[in-house]
Write a structure and sequence with these properties.
5-stranded mixed β-barrel; single chain
C-alpha cells in the first residue's frame, strides 16, 4: 500500500467512507503532481521515468475551492527521491507526495585510452547519455569543452570525464616560436622569441629573444604570445 507523509492544518477527522462530492478527488492531486514533475525534468533528463507514490485511498480531504498549489521541497534535485507539498487555501489543508525519478544525464566519455598530459582531440571524446547515478556534479557534459584540454592523468577508454581529470591547454610550447611584447612608456615593441618551456595562460615562462639571444621572463597573455614587463 502506498504511503505518504501528511501534515494537515485543522481538518475534520479522516474518514474511511466512500468518496463524496465534498471530498477532493485524489486522482486530481496525483495528476497535477505528475504533470508538475514532468515539467520539472523536461529538457533536463533523458528518458525520464517518474514513479509517484500515491496517497492512500482511505484519505479524505475536503474539496478545495481554490486552485491547488504545488511546492517543490527538493528544487535542486531532478532525479532520485523528490518531495512535493500540495496545499489548498480554502479550506486550509496540506499534504505531501513523494516520487522517485529515474533517467539519464548527458556526460562526456573517452572513446579510447588517453595518455597523461596528452591534449584531448575531437576523436578522443564524445557525449553520451548515462544513468544519472553515474554522473557527478563535476562531470563534463560538453565534449567541446574537453577538446584542447590536457589529461591530468591517464584515462582509460569509456571513462566519464570530470573537471578534475583535465588541465588547461598550453598556450606556449617548449622550443616553439612565440611573439614577445614589451612596452616602453606608451610605445609597444614586438619581437620574436623561442619558448624554453610549456606554459598555460597567465603563467610565467622564459623565452630566448631571437634578436639578442638573451633569455627573458614574461607572462603568457595569449596563444604563442608573451608579455615582457
Amino acid at each position: 500500500m502506498c504511503m505518504a507523509i501528511l501534515a494537515f492544518m485543522p481538518l475534520p477527522a479522516l474518514s474511511t467512507t466512500s468518496p463524496s462530492p465534498e471530498h477532493q478527488p485524489l486522482e486530481a492531486i496525483h495528476s497535477q503532481a505528475l504533470e508538475f514533475l514532468k515539467q520539472k525534468v523536461d529538457q533536463k533528463l533523458h528518458n525520464p521515468k517518474i514513479h509517484l507514490k500515491k496517497l492512500s485511498s482511505r484519505i479524505r480531504l475536503p474539496r478545495c475551492e481554490t486552485p491547488l498549489q504545488i511546492h517543490d521541497r527538493t528544487p535542486n534535485k531532478i532525479a532520485g527521491r523528490v518531495t512535493l507539498g500540495i496545499k489548498c487555501k480554502n479550506p486550509a489543508w496540506q499534504t505531501f507526495l513523494s516520487a522517485t525519478i529515474e533517467g539519464e544525464l548527458a556526460a562526456v566519455i573517452s572513446t579510447q585510452g588517453i595518455l597523461k598530459q596528452a591534449v584531448i582531440k575531437p576523436e578522443d571524446v564524445k557525449q553520451v547519455y548515462v544513468n544519472y547515478k553515474k554522473v557527478g556534479d563535476d562531470s563534463l557534459i560538453s565534449a567541446e569543452k574537453a577538446i584542447g584540454m590536457r589529461a591530468k592523468k591517464a584515462i582509460g577508454p569509456n571513462e566519464i570525464l570530470t573537471i578534475r581529470d583535465l588541465q588547461p591547454p598550453y598556450w606556449v610550447f617548449k622550443k616553439h616560436p612565440v611573439n614577445l611584447i614589451s612596452k616602453i612608456g606608451t610605445v609597444e615593441v614586438k619581437t620574436k622569441g623561442v619558448a624554453l618551456s610549456d606554459a598555460v595562460e597567465g603563467e610565467q615562462v622564459q623565452v630566448e629573444n631571437s634578436a639578442t639571444g638573451k633569455t627573458v621572463r614574461g607572462i603568457v597573455i595569449a596563444p604563442n604570445t608573451v608579455l615582457v614587463p
